[in-house]
Every structure is written in structure tokens, then in C-alpha cells.
């Protein structure tokens, strides 16, 4: 069946083209809305500016297809192959692309509102500057992808692979990043307020000057991370692992650090006013000049910690372990 026959049949009301072989077909500007091309071969087909709204393309082969400016709104593409496909300026609003293989695809200027890319393979894809607000990218493979200046605010990225992805200037406000492997990632100066990072691995990450206010980071691994001058106001770091993290001048006002592991952490000049560190392990920590006004340190372990020049007004040290602790007046606890 060639493209001419397809168009004639469509004009007569036929919509079932499942399994059709249309390799390298010329369907530029064709109107094929609501047709069923599931399992069809459209490899290297020319579909620029084609009207394909609400089509079924489940498990279709679109490798190398030219879909420049195509109307793909609300299309079903689950499990399809789009390797090296050109989707430049295509409108994919509301489309379902779960487990689609988009390796090497071009998506510059594509409209991706309300798209589901659950489990999709986007390794090496260029999404620089794309608007992916609230997009579903759970369990997607974004290894090596170019996400520079991409808007991922509110995006669902839990379980995604971001290994080697470029993240300069990315907007992750309110994004879901629970459980991600982000060790040694550079997120310095980023807007990450309201982000969900619970259980994520951020060992050795650079978060210098980042805004993480109201972030949910329960049980997050931040060993050796650089959080200098970061804003963690009202963030939830309960049970977090922050061993040897650098948190100098960090804003931790009203943060929840209950039962956090803060051994040997640098909290010099940090603002911990109103923070809850009950049950936290601060052994060997440096808190020189830190603001602990109204801070809860009930049951905290401050063995060998140094609090020289720290503000302890209103701090609750009930049941705290102070063996070998240097207090703000240079008093060494026995």
C-alpha cells in the first residue's frame, strides 16, 4: 500500500491502517487525523506539517521520520521507535509517549505540554531551552541529554537516569527527583525551591548558592556536598546524611534536621535559628559563629563539636551529649 492509496482510502472514511508499510513515504501536509497506524512502518517517511491529531501510532517504526511542524496533539505513541526522528517545532501537546525510543531525535522548538514520557529513552537528546513544565519523565533515560536552560518546574523525574546530563540553568522548581542518582552533579546557583529530593544520592554534589527553600529532602545522601551559601530555609532534611558537607553561611532557618547525620560538617556562620536538630549527630562539627537562636538540639550528639562565638540564645540543649564540646564562651565540656 503506497501513500496515494492511503490518502484515497482515508478520504473514503477508512481509518484502519495498522501494520501498513509506508517506509520513506511522502505524506507532507497530509491530513490523517484519528487514523490508526499502530505497528506501521513509517521509517524515513516525510510527514512535515502533517495533520495527525489523535492518531494511534502504538509500536510504530518512525525511525528517521521527518515530522517538522507536524500536528501530533494527543497522539498515542507508546512503545514506538523514533530514533533520529526530526520533531522540530512539532506540536505534541497531550501525547502519550511512554517507553518511546527517542535516541538522537531532534525536539528543538517542539511543544510538549502535558506529555507523558514515562520510561522513554531520551539519551543524548537535545532539549536545550525546552518548556517541559509538569511533564511526566518518571523512569525516563536522560543520560547525556542536553537539558541546559530547560524548564522542568513541577516535572516528574523520579526514577529517571540523568547520568551525564547537561543541567546548566535548568529550572527544577517543585520538580519530583526522589531517589535519583545525582552524585557529584553541579547544581550551583539553581532555583530548586519546593523540589522533592527524598532518598536521592547527592554525594559530592555542588549546590553552592542554590535555592532549596521548602525542599523535601528526607533521608537524602549529601555526604561531602558543597552547600555554601545555599538557601535551605524551612527545608526538610530529616534523617539526611550530610557527613563532612560544607554548609558554611547556609540558611537553615526553621529547617527540619531531626536525626540527621551531620558528623564533621562545616556549619560555620550558618543560620540555624528555629531549626530542629533533635537527635541529630553533630559530633566533630564546626559551628563557629553559627546562629542557634531558638534551635532545638534535644538529645543531639555534639561530641567534640566546636561552637565558638555561636549564638545560643534560647537554644534547647536538653539531654544533648556535650562531651568534649567547645561552647560559645570557649568553655570545654568534660
From TrEMBL:
InterPro entries per the UniProt record, alphabetical: 5peptide_repeat, Pentapeptide-BTB/POZ_domain
Gene3D superfamilies associated with the record: E3 ubiquitin-protein ligase SopA
Pfam family, one: Pentapeptide
Name recorded for this polypeptide: Low-complexity protein
Natural source organism: Desertifilum tharense IPPAS B-1220
Amino acid at each position: 500500500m503506497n501513500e496515494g492509496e492511503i490518502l484515497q482510502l482515508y478520504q473514503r472514511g477508512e481509518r484502519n491502517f495498522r501494520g501498513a508499510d509506508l517506509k520513506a513515504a511522502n505524506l507532507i501536509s497530509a491530513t490523517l487525523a484519528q487514523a490508526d497506524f499502530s505497528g506501521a512502518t513509517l521509517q524515513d517517511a516525510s510527514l512535515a506539517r502533517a495533520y495527525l491529531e489523535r492518531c494511534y501510532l502504538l509500536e510504530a517504526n518512525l525511525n528517521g521520520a521527518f515530522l517538522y511542524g507536524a500536528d501530533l496533539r494527543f497522539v498515542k505513541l507508546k512503545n514506538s521507535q523514533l530514533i533520529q526522528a526530526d520533531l522540530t517545532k512539532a506540536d505534541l501537546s497531550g501525547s502519550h509517549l511512554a517507553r518511546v525510543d527517542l535516541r538522537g531525535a531532534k525536539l528543538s522548538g517542539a511543544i510538549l505540554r502535558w506529555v507523558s514520557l514515562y520510561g522513554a529513552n531520551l539519551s543524548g537528546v537535545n532539549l536545550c531551552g525546552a518548556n517541559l513544565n509538569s511533564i511526566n519523565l518518571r523512569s525516563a533515560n536522560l543520560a547525556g541529554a542536553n537539558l541546559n536552560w530547560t524548564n522542568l518546574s513541577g516535572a516528574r523525574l523520579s526514577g529517571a537516569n540523568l547520568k551525564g546530563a547537561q543541567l546548566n540553568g535548568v529550572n527544577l522548581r517543585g520538580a519530583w527527583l526522589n531517589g535519583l542518582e545525582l552524585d557529584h552533579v553541579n547544581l550551583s546557583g539553581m532555583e530548586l525551591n519546593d523540589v522533592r529530593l527524598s532518598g536521592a544520592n547527592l554525594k559530592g554534589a555542588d549546590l553552592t548558592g542554590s535555592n532549596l527553600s521548602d525542599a523535601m529532602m528526607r533521608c537524602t545522601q549529601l555526604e561531602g556536598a558543597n552547600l555554601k551559601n545555599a538557601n535551605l530555609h524551612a527545608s526538610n532534611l530529616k534523617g539526611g546524611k550530610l557527613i563532612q558537607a560544607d554548609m558554611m553561611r547556609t540558611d537553615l532557618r526553621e529547617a527540619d534536621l531531626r536525626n540527621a547525620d551531620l558528623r564533621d560538617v562545616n556549619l560555620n556562620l550558618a543560620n540555624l535559628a528555629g531549626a530542629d536538630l533533635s537527635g541529630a549527630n553533630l559530633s566533630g562539627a564546626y559551628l563557629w559563629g553559627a546562629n542557634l537562636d531558638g534551635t532545638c538540639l534535644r538529645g543531639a550528639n555534639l561530641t567534640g563539636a566546636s561552637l565558638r562565638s555561636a549564638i545560643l540564645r534560647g537554644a534547647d540543649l536538653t539531654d544533648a551529649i556535650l562531651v568534649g564540646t567547645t561552647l560559645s564562651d570557649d568553655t570545654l565540656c568534660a
